[in-house]
Amino acid sequence: MAVRLPTIAVAALALAPLLAACNPDTLTEAERKQVASLSLAALAPLPPDPTNRVADDPAAAALGEALFFDTAMSPSGTVACGTCHQADRQFQDGLPLGKGVGATDRRTMPIAGAAYSPFQFWDGRADSLWAQALWPMEEAREHGGTRAFYVHVVAQKYRDAYEAVFGPLPDIAGLPPAAGPKGTAAERAAWEALDGGRQDGVNRAYANIGKAIAAYERTLLPAETRFDRFAAALAAGREPEGDARFSDLETEGLTLFLGSANCVTCHNGPRFTDDHFHNTGVPQAAGLPEDHGRAQAVPLLLSDPFNCQGPYSDAPGRCDELRFMIREGEELERAFKTPSLRGAAGRAPYMHSGQIATLEDVVAHYSAAPAAPSGHSEVNPITLTDRGRAALVAFLKTLE
Amino acid sequence: MSRNTKLLGAAAMLIVLAAAVFSAMRFFMAPPDDLDLARSKASAAGLYRVTIAPELEPIEQGPLQAFLVTVTTPDGKPVDDAKLSVDGGMPQHGHGLPTRPQASGPLGEGRYRIEGLRFHMSGWWVLKIGIEGPAGRDEADFNLVL
Predict the structure, then answer these.
(1) Whether this model's pTM surpasses 0.95
(2) Which residues in chain B touch residue A258, judged by CB atoms under 8 angstroms apart?
(3) pLDDT (average), residues A37-59
């Protein structure tokens, strides 16, 4: 008996998850409510962006779509937003680090549903989609251009479409072909040589380019998944049918996600994100400068002339997100934005610099909960059986 | 009892136990069920009576929101010359508030408005209202469950 008991104990433990049952009838009332809160049916209408007066103007979105995919939007003629944000790959590129003119330090983020997020980028250094778009265009390793360059491109290729939406472009006679405050020494000198009025005109047109692109991005929304069909059946009190049926493993994964694995504390709501910044102990990517995440982004956001309160915003008095955001403190160190998990199964590798190769490895990361390279990880280690790990991965795949 | 029946009994008991442990784990983050959820109470040292009222009910997870706070003396006279501060967090997650909410000046009849609150997770939240008023400094802590 003394010899046999452990065997029985092991057998009993192995059976326990099965006993906790694996079809939707056995989800608790609280779990059903959580499932409903995660389903696409619970997604609120897209919030307006008062800082962009053309946010919902179809003509602006059409112009923005053309700009998004046009490689003329880079001095090399090789890089567009769509180079990294590829329409047939969930608007990302499947690489650990985005690659434009050169390699960047972070992984390309998908765009569907980004318009819901109050802050853009892994570190949230932009507070609107239009302010976001202005960063990669002037980043040497991405599009590699200057704001004067983009005004010239629009004047040559898109003048009518631009002026129909925004009114006259600034006068480009005598405007240097390359000039901007973030460029090379020569480009900065050319920018400094412009008088304040001309700089302001270029800034305004540059912001408008961002606003057109943002109008397009606002049309990119998350698509219905198997999970949503499962949730719809559950909400209607129907037995899920066809591909809406979850296997035992998938149901188990769902239960873990909502329960003891605690994933839903951060990956919540219909986009599976709380839109907040957390340090989850993801290792520093080898060979890259130390990344402080949200801690390094806050000063950039506050000093960005294209933020909500700046002169190019169409609603500088309506900046509650900026007003009430946390500006300092330990919790900002290496905190990154919770990514949506919709479609994540098809978007390896993972994390802000592609540090983790597969979903299995992601689950192993949460289970081990390593200490953060700097700051404090909010993740507590969880004990998962092999089956539990497989179950979580199986559940994440229902979100594709 | 045969040796086999005993074994079977032990196995059954273990299965029940394991199932119980497993379902307990599923509710591992549930808020304690004896939480005081009162929206109106005396401050910690009894200097004031404090009432909170979310401007939108039910409290939503996600968007920024505002609460109206009413401060009176223990016997119900409005306190209109206090300065309020806001702090809080989620005791079971060991983190503070995700935003930096701010309290307005007095709006009359003991009322103050707290703007910029966000509850980005479901679960147990604590909202600590600090009151710096004529009777001195005190604090009232409120539990909220989302």
Answers:
(1) no
(2) 26
(3) 97
